[in-house]
Amino acid sequence: MDLGIRGKRALVCASSKGLGRGCAEALAAAGVDLVLNARGSEALAATAAAIRAGHGVEVVAVAADITTEEGRAKVLAAAGQVDILVTNAGGPPPGLWSDWSRDDFIRALDANMLTPIALMQAALPGMMDRGWGRVVNITSQSVKAPIPALGLSNAARTGLTGFVAGTARQVAAKGVTINNLLPGIHDTDRADALDRGAAKGQGLSLDEARRAREATIPARRYGTAAEFGATCAFLCSVHAGFIVGQNILLDGGATNATI
Ligand code: NAP
Predict the structure, then answer these.
(1) Between helices 102-109 and 151-171, what is the axis angle to 10°?
(2) What count of Cα atoms within 13 Å lies in the side-chain half-sphere of residue 233?
(3) Is the shortest distance between the CB of 17 and ligand 1 below 6 Å?
(4) Could you tell me the distance, in angstroms and rounded to a whole number, from the CA of residue 38 to the centre of ligand 1?
(5) What is the tens place of the pLDDT at every residue in 181-214?
(6) Entry pTM
(7) Cβ(37) to ligand 1 under 6 A?
């Protein structure tokens, strides 16, 4: 299917690896020029080079921490006008509800709620002026069904979801859509780190820990960054203009709910 977005320009945050990279690859395959971002410059440069070589699109790489005001300013200055914005950043650390201080909450809100909101505030006016735009926020399945150890993530991402629900309906008339993608367990460095933690904590091998988590997913496997990216690219396509303010779960059926 031709996604109809060849020649558009996208900012994909936190995209040297994992789900962000999956989104960047799928957009590049659709002919979209990219601005990529991550903190570490080495992996970022390698990803940018691979995408340039693989898809022949323009790729600008900006090494910066997207959760800081300074980092965002650097990324936005390099990006200029974008037609597509994919927000993403690392997730907050796990822990226990009784342990988190105000500062812990502020850090989580800054990274996973206020950063995507600031990026939308920067990109939406230009998209609305030009009469076309797409925003996809990478959030988490924890928005639909809370993950007990990830209370900071549950809180921050739910706040973002509330903001998107209202804002998406205020900008839709200008040809701009905002939607959220909710990953369940995907095969990325983050999933690997969680498996290593579980293996250590439960005295299992890494393989046993992974099999145990796969068994909790009806699809009996982890999702891939490529599948995730393809869904993101579709949401950014010309065909998805009537999808507004939705929360799309990609979890292999793991969230046991009728709707
Ligand atoms: P990942 O494989 O660890 O990749 C994270 C990417 O983001 C890397 O390119 C990393 O590069 C970059 N990054 C992290 N923090 C950043 C920051 N502050 N500024 C700029 N770039 C940053 O993670 P992932 O699995 O793709 O996860 C992406 C998001 O989805 C996270 O918020 C995660 O919590 C959420 N999620 C993931 C899963 C899953 O199963 N994978 C499930 C639910 C939710 P640098 O480290 O060099 O900055």
Answers:
(1) 40
(2) 28
(3) yes
(4) 9
(5) 999 999 999 889 889 988 999 999 999 999 999 9
(6) 0.98
(7) yes
